[in-house]
Amino acid sequence: MRQTVVTRHVASLLLLAVLLCLAVGSADSGSSSTTSRQPSRPTGPSISRGQELQISGDHWTGCTDREYSAQLTEYAVQEDFEAFEKALAEGVLNGVCTIFEDGEVVYVTDTAILSGLVRIRRRGETQEYWTNLEAVE
Questions:
Q1: Phi/psi at 60 (5° precision)
Q2: Tens digits of per-residue pLDDT, 38-80?
Q3: What is the model's pTM?
Q4: How far apart are CA 55 and CA 26, in angstroms?
Q5: CA–CA gap between residue 82 and residue 80 (Å, rounded)
Q6: Which residue among 4, 12, 20, 104 has its CA within the 20 to 30 Å range from the CA of 40?
Q7: Domain edges within the chain
């Protein structure tokens, strides 16, 4: 019985290590490829605190609460646009979320690269928002 538990833990650790290697390898190989939307977009480690960037495209949102931002992203990934629109409208009305405009100048204040999120603030403002890494270039 004890050997089965140890085997499961070892297997879980190996799976985690493989997933981390795949994630790192994917980030490294993705940095040299280009996307159809923005070929010059920085990826992975090239984003750092204090860096001045711009919003790349319309319809990017940000929220002061990281979990709220992640929940909006999850609704979008699930293609539940009704839930996304309701949650975004509620967040904007409560001052928790904002909608960015293409080309807005922002500064990176924190990074959570592995989660795909970055915290930014608009030029001249102090309020910071979590948004998708792909929102900035």
A1: -90, 140
A2: 434 444 447 778 889 999 998 899 999 999 999 998 999 999 9
A3: 0.64
A4: 24
A5: 6
A6: 20
A7: 1-32, 45-135
